[in-house]
Amino acid sequence: MIVEAVADTFPFLPFIYDRSGEVQESAVLERKRGKHAAATSDAVREDGIAWVHRAFEKLGEIASLPENWDGEGSPPVDRCLLAVAERLLERLRGNVEFDVPPPEVSPIQGGAFQLEWQVRKRYLEFEFSQSKKLLFLTDEDTPQGAIITSGECPLELADKARELLSWLMGRPTA
Amino acid sequence: MSESHGLRDDPLIPDEEGLYGCIHQLHLDSAEDRPKSATFKSKTNPHPSVDRASLSTPEQSLARKPDSIGVACLTAGVVREFTVGIASNPLPDNRAHAVIIRDLTLSDNQWNKTARKLAKACTWALRRNS
Hints:
The complex is a heterodimer of chains A (174) and B (130).
Chain A: H1 2-9, H2 21-32, H3 50-63, H4 79-95, E1 104-108, E2 112-119, E3 122-128, E4 133-142, E5 145-154, H5 158-168
Antiparallel strand pairs in A: 1-2, 2-3, 3-4, 4-5
Helix pairs in contact in A: 1-3, 3-4, 4-5
Chain B: E1 18-24, E2 28-29, E3 34-35, E4 49-52, H1 58-64, E5 68-75, H2 76-82, E6 85-88, E7 97-101, H3 108-121, E8 123-127
Antiparallel strand pairs in B: 1-4, 1-5, 2-3, 4-7, 5-8, 6-7
């Protein structure tokens, strides 16, 4: 039922219709158990692209947030930004060969949103608030304390997003 | 030089004073049990709203935001460490209202670092019973 709702509110997600009933059901059950996206899990899915499917589902959930979802008059999440995120995820699905946990997805007041990952001591955030730029933030707990960096890059450069995901997963980066 | 809509840090708010912020369910980092950085971000209102603890209680703050799951707290001193400061901004129905002053000369990605630091510094003043 949730998947149907996602399809209704977020019709430009083609693969929603392609997924097997079993996968959809398990995602629904996981939500019912209150088990949010495994963004903080050390466990990594064996299917290297499963995280992209989950990210799309979560984008579908925030796409259905109504006007004033925050009680402070925020507009709904911007559909154009959702489409931008979808395009980036599609690119990453094609060129990230390693496993990544699904991100959490959080709306930001005013129509923007962000994807968040926490893997062991590393945190990564992608903010979608502008149509042409990806804002990113990294945070790593080290013995010397937290090291937080942030930046931005053109959205068409999926390589930067891939590099950040490599960092998140502790893989060597070029 | 900072630019903040003419808002200035209020020296009458002591560093020890708590500042309450209501947390929306979608802004709960359930793994860390703290607010997410998105709590302190907005594309329409650059200066996050808080309530002064000297003029409100967590219960009163929560009552003003029925959709919230709880009330997080930061001290004014911590907020000053990361931002321009805090400005009192009483409203007709909330005399405790204040805002965290964002330096508007900072880029969004610079502010994102601040938002992350603020989120990590939060403690819970009150959790709503589910």
